[in-house]
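Note to self: keep these together.
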Amino acid sequence: MARRALKLASLAAAASGIYLYGNKFMDPNDFGVVRVGRAIATTAVITYDYLTSLRNVPYGSEEYDFLKSQVHLRSAERLRELCCANRGTFIKVGQHLGALDYLLPEEYTRTLKVLHSQAPQSTRQEIEQVIREDLGKEIKELFVSFEDTPLGAASLAQVHKAVLQDGRTVAVKIQHPKVQAQSSKDIFLMEVLLLVVKQIFPDFEFMWLVEEAKKNLPLELDFLNEGRNAEKVAQMLKNFDFLKVPRIYWELSTRRVLLMEFMEGGQVNDKVYMEKNGIDVNEISRNLGKLYSEMIFVNGFVHCDPHPGNVLVKKCPDSGKAYIILLDHGLYQVLSESFRMDYCRLWQALIKADMKRVQKYSRRLGAGDLYPLFACMLTARSWESVNRGIDQSPVSASELQGYVQSGVLPLEDGLMEPGRAQSEAMMTGGQADLTQEDVEIRSNAAAYLPQITQLLNNVPRQMLLLLKTNDLLRGIESALHTRASASSFLNMSRCCIRAVSTYQRSKSHSLYRRIHISLTEALSLWQINLYELFLWLKGSRLGNWVIVFLSRMHHST
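Structure:
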């Protein structure tokens, strides 16, 4: 009897195996045991590599630094392979890590950045299944045409171009069918593995990443929430005539399917595209800064995924005006009023080089004794430059030297210093190549990893997405070879002044006090406008002529 039962069980297992192998809708990667096993094995290999590769090498030596870089690279490649294999949530978290330039070792960010272009694609059958389940109709009933090849595929969804029965061209965003079911399990798995790693490496403080994924993924998986965000930001920024946000077609949208107005253009980091189409790179960079200053400081409602695939640029052939097209509105950070005011005042202090207020508001935002590092992370500048004033100091290749040379960072004993010789070798006539500087900053971020991870665990959760947004915007600036200029800092100052004044008026019950606040605001904005005019004159031919003329008049008298 037992032998017969064993034979039947064997036959059933064999039949199931043949069925699963022959069924094209089944993927071994979808089985929990495969995904869990792969994640555990990758984590174990990475942990073992760090434990053994650096064991007998003197800390701080050239050999140690070289071997550590190699371990970083091997580990990043293993992590990338895990993300590509497990897909979905793993790719989303990997993309987040890849965006943290200046916060993680360069080996990780460079390796994980490719995940933006290696997202999985759902098959035609899977797309039809989602549309059938959510909209109750077949694709051919809804659309005159539907392109099989997606315009783009991301970790959670992909977008197809289609034409509705009434002739409207639309973009159809469709969620990968298995992401919803797998996301909560994947996050729990990551949390367990990170807790285990933290037991082995006490300085490893990346639980904030899991907490952010727990909070944000459910929102990103609800496309109706994304549609509401798109409409809210379009209304909020309607005064910016250079901004375009696709219109949402609610009648054909669900939690897993989103229909939008079709818009196309070049990616915001594609300098060749802009030059070819006569688009002013500096104007686009300035306008992007205006958008985000308004979102962060004035409205406290921030689009937190401005990677190049989500920000397009296009020049209108009729008017000749260049537009910024903002896509993918699934992830927004809502800033509390108290956080937003502290953040405004911190940036005002940074721009004015008011170090007492920099310390005060950095501490209020959770930086504690690490406030110098916090200021450097926000601005991507050295402590020396922060002290001089970030709007006054040109970016130089020796930026990271300032962390150690200033003697103000509470660094732990034995922490590796940035390579001074490397920095000096990169100097060219007093002005560094910005791409080389970026590479140096990222590579030296590894030296401060314990402090950075401690800081990221201490600051409010709202700050984490702002830091990610800052890094994505800096990446765009680097690709366009533009840098935060005096003009961009003036725009930030305007937004900070308006935000703080609006807040103060709302808290004041005295008419005299409200009038005084409004007059102070108007005066401060007038001073900024006057200073901007001065900068324009100084950089123009007319301005130079006026300066020469006044100088001659002065000498003649």
